[in-house]
Amino acid sequence: MEETYRDRTSLVKGAKDIAKEVKRQAVKKVNKAVDKAQDGYTQRSYNRFQDEEDDDDYYVQGGNYGVEANDDEGSSEATEGHDEDDEIYEGEYQGIPNMGQGKDGMVALGQPMRDEYKDRHELETERKADEEELAQQYELIIQECGHGRFQWALFFVLGMALMADGVEVFVVGFVLPSAETDMCIPNSGSGWLGSIVYLGMMVGAFFWGGLADKVGRRQSLLICMSVNGFFAFLSSFVQGYGFFLFCRLFSGFGIGGAVPTVFSYFSEVLAREKRGEHLSWLCMFWMIGGIYASAMAWAIIPHYGWSFSMGSAYQFHSWRVFVIVCALPCVSSVVALTFMPESPRFLLEVGKHDEAWMILKQIHDTNMRARGQPEKVFTVNRIKTPKQIDELIEIESDTGTWYRRCFVRIRTELYGIWLTFMRCFNYPVKDNTIKLTAVWFTLSFGYYGLSVWFPDVIKHLQSDEYASRVKYFRNEEVSNFVFNFTLENQIHSNGEYINDRFIMMKFKSVTFEDSLFKNCVFDDITSLNTYFRNCTFVNTTFYNTDLEQYKFVDSEFINCTFFHIRTGCQISFDDDYSAYWIYFVNFLGTLAVLPGNIVSALLMDRIGRLTMLGGSMVLSGISCFFLWFGTSESMMIGMLCLYNGLTISAWNSLDVITVELYPTDRRATGFGFLNALCKAAAVLGNLIFGSLVGITKAIPILLASTVLVCGGLVGLRLPDTRTQVLM
């Protein structure tokens, strides 16, 4: 026999015969194991498998992964698992075959030869069957691992990343007034700061989501959160507006990958009956991020004692301290993620059986020790891994330059992400992707549009009320008087001020019209929204003031002198009457989602995702009509809280549905695409709704109601995923 196998023709023939026999035996064992697993899955009873005679086979979805029980009680442990039926395990590392391996070498040699003659369609069909088999088996494995300490530890780690995403959304709105003043940003460029962050988040969501399906959830999340933390920290020190925009752009680009990666990561370590509830609890960290940002802004930004300067070239004001503090959740999540393992479901998808098995054993042992059952053994021996289809990509030879090879590698990775994205529009997920696109866009457009419209309307009401309390002074004559107090919300017209001194005082929203200042002194003056229109200054001295040329409109100066004029922009947040009110409104609006978060978490697995999604969006659309009665600040704040409380259930259920509708190899990519679409809809909603502030209520109300109700009706047409395993 040994001489015969040295002949290549006989070797190949023998390998084929053995492969056929292995395949026949594998089919018989697949049918037996699948029937057994499906029966257990239907009864939703996992424990009954432990009492069966051959415990090691109840996980097995394919005979080539099972470990048969040894019928011979006297056999040694050294030969266990090496009987004839279990020579090869598909997906198991067998080592490099050699000519002296005997039958093992022949089987290993025969397997690649069979795949060489299969076209891609056949390979993809086999892979799809393997994935369906793995989905059922993986659900049973996660049920054996239980829900305990490991899931809760990962819950808080990923929660910090989601909290960082919530902080990023709020931080720009809070620092925008101070940053615009500190960096002398003109009105024409002020809108870029808010839009640039959403642009970065939009691109980042798509890129990092796609990368998470190629390199892993943990790896992608670590990189994107590190990018966010680095550029967020750097943005607090830069002085130029252009560089600041650059840093916030890349900060948004980094944090854009948090939402799709976090939900994909966490869903893959949860059993079916726990998934909806605990993903909803995870959403609460986004609310905590908003509360954290509001509290820190209120506590830090108005305190100018925390500021310092290095000449006129470098200014470090309190809003920069706020930006640093807001980066702490991101830094915390990066540190904690280094101690967490990769998603075992992802590792199985890419064929890394041993690594996935070790992580699943770690999950099992961690939870069992926490339950006080350290003696309980992880009984899984083999897990099904889908057939791996190699992608043949032409790459530059080693003789090329290093940067050329890097460019080709990056281009290859981006092309791979694009191919994965295009597969989201293939059967059977094409219809789901189209419906999810409609729901994500309508919910984002309505939610973010009204979220911007509410505070702007409140500020508009405040401005109207403030303007209604303005004091008018006409034809006044003041001479030889010392002004050393604050003038606020006043209009002085046709006045004469002779030999007066304005010393160490503040002008806030003060206007002088057609007035005469003769032999006066302005010393140490700080002004906000203060203008001198068509005024005449004679023999007047200005010393250490911020009264720049643009504050004098059509005014005339006769023999006047200016000393130490403070040019540039001056921080004036103490003088902003709505500063604390803006923080308080955002704090209440964010806190209002707490009841909705609790309700959605408790009812997600009881009433179903679709009922909660459609019902929440329809109710949110109906609640918009109550805005007709919002004629005061308190009523508008109440409407804002009601609206946020109703929409949060829709967001939570939409997150759960999205991760459950996509298979593992496209889950993060599909979620990332939809999250990028969400940011695009948010920018569009901000532009449209923001332009209607103070003009009309009818269009925002009707527009928001229409898109929310239509999106809710489309959401009801999605398939129900409550009873499905994670594909």
Automatic annotation (TrEMBL):
Matches recorded under Pfam families: LD_SV2, MFS_1, Sugar_tr
Residue ranges of every copy of the Major facilitator superfamily (MFS) profile domain listed in the record: 154-722
Annotated GO CC locations: synaptic vesicle membrane
Residue stretches spanning the membrane: 152-177, 189-208, 220-237, 243-267, 279-301, 321-340, 436-454, 580-603, 610-629, 635-659, 671-692, 698-718
Chain positions covered by the region annotation Disordered: 29-85
Family matches, as InterPro entries: LD_SV2, MFS, MFS_dom, MFS_sugar_transport-like, MFS_trans_sf, Sugar_transporter_CS, SV2
Entry membrane topology: Multi-pass membrane protein
Subcellular location, record wording: Cytoplasmic vesicle, Secretory vesicle, Synaptic vesicle membrane
GO biological process: chemical synaptic transmission; neurotransmitter transport
Alphabetic keyword roster: Coiled coil, Cytoplasmic vesicle, Glycoprotein, Membrane, Neurotransmitter transport, Phosphoprotein, Synapse, Transmembrane, Transmembrane helix, Transport
Keyword Translocase among record annotations: no
Any one GO molecular-function label of the UniProt entry: transmembrane transporter activity
Coiled-coil segments on the chain, per record: 113-140
UniProt similarity note: Belongs to the major facilitator superfamily.
PANTHER family hit by this protein: SYNAPTIC VESICLE GLYCOPROTEIN 2, SYNAPTIC VESICLE GLYCOPROTEIN 2C
Protein name: Synaptic vesicle glycoprotein 2C
Name of the gene: LOC135324668
